[in-house]
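Task: sequence in, structure out. Protein: NAD-dependent oxidoreductase.
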Amino acid sequence: MIKLAVIGTNWITDNFIQGALQTGRFELCAVYSRSFGQAQNFGLKYNVKYFFDDLELFASSTEFEAVYIASPNSFHKYQSIRMLKSSKHVICEKPLASDYTSAQDMYKTAEENDVVLFEAFMTPYLPNFAVLKQNIKDIGTLRKVMFNYCQYSSRYPKFLRGENPNTFNPSFSNGSVMDIGYYCLGAAIELFGEPKSVYATADILESGVDGNGSIILGYNGFDAVLMHSKTSNSFLPSEIQGEQACLQIEMISTCNKVSRIDRNGHITDLSVGQKENRMFYEANAFADQVIINKINTKSKTRSLTLAKVLTDVRIQTGVIFPTDP
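Result:
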């Protein structure tokens, strides 16, 4: 049983803990929050015994061996490196880091301290994503890819009223591409690897982050068009188009359904069952790496490529974070 601790007490932490406990491979032992009372309120429902509001005391604790980090993006590097240097395995929410250099530093620290660093990006570990991978070879030569994730943020009305929610605040390394756009970019890189070219545009809000944007990734024989937005909704599925057929994906982040549509319009549902809590699968994959105490090379390559392309996208669109090198 892996003794787990968490940094962060928000809804996504709750979801991850529930998914991790469902695997039967974790025991939640400790909670860190800047507020001791908040840490207690969050952890008591899981019968947690140890609570911290001091990061140094938390890092030096011997009551856990792995940490799930779900703090704001701008804290990921510092908190992860602090935990890794204390010989704790780390699963850090996506995006792993605010920039490419930081992601490289984090993996270097993990390797120097002989522990696992894992980016909590659930999509590649889903059963229906595996179905998607398996069926790409059966649709003929690839010609077009369109990944779409546009969801009007519940925080956007606050922003329009002149408030400064974390979602649209560059101090927290946020914005559309760092949040939901990440799923489109991550899925493309997991399926097709590092692109030969990247072209990005975005609508930059007054706060300095992107509210929505588009990315075109160039590959041999096809391009991948990625559309992301936190200021509008879309109900279009994503598609991978081959010369013989098209694969259609309902919700690229969670792969709720995968269908094959041939040139005559005949539809075949390829979907398999998935657990309601999709974070179960990433927690299980993290446990696999912790048990053998080895970082998966393919996962590391994907995470670093993602950080590299995300940084390129921000440079092209003019999104600057205070944490940038």
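The mean pLDDT is 97.
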